[in-house]
Amino acid sequence: MNDRDISQQLQDAVRSAAADGRALHIRGGGSKAFYGRDADRAGEPLDLSGHRGIISYTATELVISARCGTPLAELEAALAERDQVLPFEPPHFDADTSTTATVGGALACGLSGPRRPWGGALRDHVLGTRLLNGRGEPLRFGGEVIKNVAGYDVSRLLTGSLGVLGAVLEVSFKVLPAAAREVTLAQPCDAAEALRRAARWSRQPLPLSGIAWDDGQLRLRLAGAAAGVTAAVAQLRAADGGEEVDGNWWQALREQQLAFFAGEAPLWRLSLPPASAPLDQLPGDWLLDWGGAQRWLRSEAPAESIRAAAAALGGHATLFRGGERSGEVFHPLDPVKARLHRSIKAAFDPKGIFNPGKLYADL
Fold this sequence. Notes:
Elements: H1 7-20, E1 24-27, E2 44-47, E3 54-58, E4 63-67, H2 72-80, E5 84-85, H3 103-109, H4 116-119, E6 126-132, E7 138-142, H5 154-158, E8 167-174, E9 176-177, E10 181-188, H6 191-202, E11 208-214, E12 217-224, H7 226-240, E13 243-245, H8 249-254, E14 267-271, E15 285-289, E16 294-298, H9 303-312, E17 316-321, H10 335-348
Parallel strand pairs: 1-2
Antiparallel strand pairs: 3-4, 4-8, 5-9, 6-7, 6-8, 10-12, 10-13, 11-12, 14-16, 14-17, 15-16
């Protein structure tokens, strides 16, 4: 461990940049630098990776607080010692030894793993944050208990903002006990049948913590009390069959280490109503996660076609990896939402010094 508080150094750097009107691009461990628009070089680096360390951890209250540069692995190891977890399973994407997933990067990207529909999204577990705004002022939002989160919940607003509103210095998360037992069942079927089964089982009182389909296999993960998991496995097998398989598959899915994610074709992330039918009109390969609510597509299809197909079902599409990243990679905003985004940006970062163009071209 290498705990270090460099908040004053970071504050001085932001104030200097604001005074001179210089842009800053915020960097942590670099594991998710690919995410968002290709605007990382729009400004001088503001390295937050040195601002690290677990500030407090009250296992009995299910709350942990850490500085932004704290490695996710370090945070999760501390939780594991007390049989607790981050229930939203944030991806690390740091298999490359030159990168390290950090707490701040997890918040900035706002990504959640396979447990998200049942355990909640990352933003649902953020209790409080400490932020440097575009004037270099340290601001604190929320707290370390749920009752402190009242009024306008800025901490959730920061989740997924890719640093365009400010430099997050600290984060407090609600955590949960680890499951006593976890089992994964695999059932062979096509995508359409996988979606039907996912919809059926999601309506049942089962201890589900993952439903995903890839390469002709539907996988269902059950986690919780041992007796409940055993009964649920028997129920699922009696209805649709299936065999118990290695549960490490979910980590490979979370970290995008499955064969599906290899290759150079653009990777799209579609967020859709989970019971939506397969989008067979779009060419490419599919992987379904979150019971059908998150769908990954490897395709060379035009962005307009992919986004139109998602919007027709009430969803949206993000160019997650690869492809043309100088344009808009997130689903375009309607005029009202775009105006709201600009107003919020102006309130937190009036001179526009933080990560210009990383989220949207005009932010």
